[in-house]
Structures are given as C-alpha cells and as structure tokens.
Design goal:
Layout: H1 2-20, H2 30-34, H3 36-58, H4 68-93
Amino acid sequence: MHVFIYLLAAYGLVFGMQNKIPTLQYWTLNDLLECPYCLGFWMGWFTWGFSWMLAPVWNLYPVWGDYPLEGIIWAFATAAFCQIVDELVRRNEGK
C-alpha cells in the first residue's frame, strides 16, 4: 500500500509542477515540464530519496530497495505511472 501512496505522491508533484506553478514555466525547463514521463522520472528519484529520509524518523518502510540500482528502477516505474495517469486524465478531460 505504501508503494501506491508514493506513486500518487509522485504524480501529484508532477501535476502540480506542470499545471499549478506558473513561475516554473518561464525558466528553461519547458521541455521537461511538458513531458509527464520525464518529470515523473525525476519525481521518482525525489520520492525514493524522500522515503529513505522518512523511514528512520517515522518508523516507516522505504518505498523500495536498498541500492541505487533499485532507485533507478523505481524512477522508471514512477515515470511510466505518471505517463499513464496523465494520459487517462487528458482523455477524461477531452483534450
């Protein structure tokens, strides 16, 4: 269950950065902000690292894995999840 929560957190960060923070759209990050897969990859790294920071503090489980290679796998899984959810949201909105 905690894995799904971290996936939703990553998508929430992606959605917020793409649609709700207008100051980011004026920087040179436009290509990154237009791609939910690319931004989902970086949010995957962020949530993976954040889960490892929170694990000892709140006695939680880290999101996944003990080694950096597993962090890369988690980043790609998050990227795919963000791409799929973003496509479903866009189709539901009719865009």
